[in-house]
Write a structure and sequence with these properties.
- It is a single chain.
- This protein is α+β, with helices and mostly antiparallel strands and 418 residues long.
- It is built from 13 helices and 4 strands.
- Strands 1, 2, 3 and 4 form a 4-stranded antiparallel beta sheet that branches.
- α4 packs across α10 and α11 packs antiparallel against α12.
- The two termini are 18 Å apart.
Length: 418
C-alpha cells in the first residue's frame, strides 16, 4: 500500500507542479470576446433622400449583424499598472487597440452602404432627367409612345443607366469637383442619350439652350444639396467621404459639452473627413465607457495580482510537503483546509469568471446605453487560474481515492506497531 501511496504522491507532485507552471505561463488576464453590431442602426450615418428610402441595408450587406472581435492580454506588468483602476492605463492596455480595430472594421460596411446609396440616387437622377428630356423632344410620330417606350426601344436599359451613373459618380468624387464640372458630364450624358433616342425616329434631338442647361444644373444642385454634398465654397464633398462627414456631425453634437477642451472637437486643417470621424468616434467610445467598467477591471486585476502569489504559495506548499512525506515511513501527504479554501477561489477566478462573463453578464449588461450600433456583447475572460482550477477539480476526485488508501495504510501502520 505504501508503494501505491508513493505513486499517487508522484501524481500529486506532477499536478501541483503543473498548476504552479500554468499560473505563470499564460497571460494573467486575457479576453477573446465578441461585439455584435446591429446593421440597421448604420442608417443614421447614411444619407437619406427621396431615392434612398426603400434601400434595405441588411439585404444589401447580406446580414443583420456584424461581429467584431475583442482581444487583449495582460501580463504581470500590465496587471500591476491597471490594478488601481487607472483609466489611462486601462485604455492603453485594454480599450484603445480594440477601439481602433472596431473603427477600421466599420469602414467597409459604411463605405459599401453609402456607395450603393449614392449610386442609386445618381442613377435615379439621370434616368428621371433623361426621361423628361426625351418626353419633351418627342415629335409628332412619337406622340403615341411614352418616353419609357422609346428609351426601351433604343436599348436604354438598366445597364445603360448604371454606366451613366458610374461616370457621374466618378466625376463627383474627384478632388475639388464642382457642381459645374459634374453638370458638364450630365449634359454630355443627356446629349448622348437624346442622340440615341433619335435613332427611333420618334424624337428630334434638340440643341440645349443656356436656359435649359441652367435648369438641368439646378435640378442636379437640388439633389446634391439634399445629400449635403455642396460646400460653402462651391466645391463638392468627395462622395467616398460623405458618411464620415455625417458621422462626425452626429458625434460632434453628441460630444459637445462633454469634453474638457471643446477645440478638440474641431476638424484639423489637414485632417480628412474619415480621420476626423475616426478620432471623434474614438473619443466618444472612451468617454461613454462607464466608471463601473474601470472599477471592475481594477478590482479584478488587484485580486488576480494578489492571488498569483497566494495560489503559487499553496501549490508550492503542497508540492514540498508531498515531496518530503514521500520518503518517510508515513508517506501520505497533507492537503489541509487552506488548500481547499484557496483552491475554491481559483475555481471562482478561473472557471467562474469565464462562465459569468460569457453567459451571465451579457444578459444584464445594458449596451444600448452607449447609443452605439451595438446589439450584443459576449465577454470571454480567461485568467491564469483557469487551468489550475481544472487541476484542482480533478484533484478533488483524486483526493477522495487518496483518502481511502491513506485510511487503509494508517490502519496497517497501527497494526504493525502493536
Amino acid at each position: 500500500m505504501k508503494a501505491a501511496i508513493r505513486i499517487f504522491n508522484l501524481i500529486i507532485l506532477a499536478l501541483s507542479g503543473a498548476a504552479a507552471f500554468f499560473l505563470f505561463y499564460p497571460p494573467i488576464l486575457s479576453f477573446n470576446s465578441n461585439i455584435t453590431l446591429d446593421v440597421n442602426t448604420f442608417s443614421q450615418f447614411v444619407p437619406e433622400t427621396t431615392y434612398s428610402t426603400t434601400i434595405d441595408i441588411p439585404q444589401l450587406l447580406g446580414t443583420n449583424e456584424i461581429h467584431v472581435g475583442i482581444k487583449f492580454a495582460l501580463d504581470y506588468k500590465g496587471v500591476n499598472e491597471v490594478k488601481d483602476g487607472n483609466k489611462d492605463k486601462i485604455n492603453q492596455y485594454i480599450i484603445q487597440q480594440n477601439v481602433d480595430d472596431m473603427i477600421n472594421l466599420l469602414h467597409e460596411p459604411i463605405d459599401l452602404i453609402t456607395d450603393f446609396t449614392i449610386r442609386s440616387v445618381i442613377k435615379s437622377t439621370i434616368k428621371n432627367e433623361i426621361t423628361t428630356q426625351v418626353e419633351a423632344a418627342k415629335n409628332g410620330s412619337g406622340s403615341g409612345s411614352t418616353a419609357e417606350d422609346i428609351m426601351e426601344e433604343v436599348g436604354m436599359d438598366d445597364v445603360y443607366f448604371t454606366n451613366f451613373s458610374n461616370a457621374l459618380y466618378d466625376s463627383a468624387n474627384e478632388n475639388n469637383a464642382t457642381i459645374d464640372s459634374v453638370s458638364d458630364v450630365l449634359y454630355e450624358q443627356i446629349d448622348e442619350a437624346l442622340a440615341k433616342a433619335q435613332e427611333s425616329g420618334l424624337v428630334d434631338k434638340p440643341e440645349f439652350s443656356q436656359e435649359k442647361r441652367e435648369e438641368i444644373k439646378t435640378n442636379l444642385l437640388s439633389i446634391f444639396n439634399e445629400l449635403k454634398l455642396v460646400k460653402a465654397d462651391g466645391t463638392l464633398v468627395r462622395i467616398s467621404e460623405l458618411p464620415y462627414m455625417y458621422m462626425s456631425t452626429y458625434l460632434k453634437t453628441e460630444l459637445t459639452g462633454k469634453v474638457t477642451d471643446p477645440s478638440t472637437l474641431d476638424q484639423g486643417p489637414t485632417e480628412s473627413n474619415p480621420a476626423y470621424a475616426d478620432r471623434l468616434l474614438n473619443t466618444y467610445i472612451l468617454l461613454m465607457m462607464p466608471d463601473a467598467f474601470y472599477q471592475a477591471v481594477g478590482y479584478t486585476s488587484l485580486g488576480l495580482f494578489i492571488g498569483l502569489f497566494v495560489f503559487v504559495g499553496i501549490w508550492g506548499i503542497l508540492f514540498l510537503i508531498t515531496l518530503i512525506k514521500t520518503f518517510t515511513k508515513k508517506p501520505w501527504t497533507i492537503f489541509g483546509p487552506w488548500f481547499w479554501i484557496i483552491g475554491f477561489l481559483q475555481v471562482v477566478l478561473g472557471l467562474g469568471l469565464t462562465v459569468v462573463g460569457k453567459f451571465i453578464l451579457p444578459k444584464y449588461l445594458n449596451v444600448t446605453a452607449l447609443n452605439l450600433p451595438i446589439k450584443q456583447i459576449i465577454l470571454a475572460p480567461r485568467t491564469y487560474a483557469l487551468i489550475p482550477s481544472m487541476i484542482y477539480l480533478g484533484l478533488i476526485i483524486l483526493a477522495i481515492i487518496y483518502a481511502i488508501m491513506r485510511s487503509i495504510l494508517k490502519k496497517q501502520v497501527r497494526e504493525e506497531g502493536k
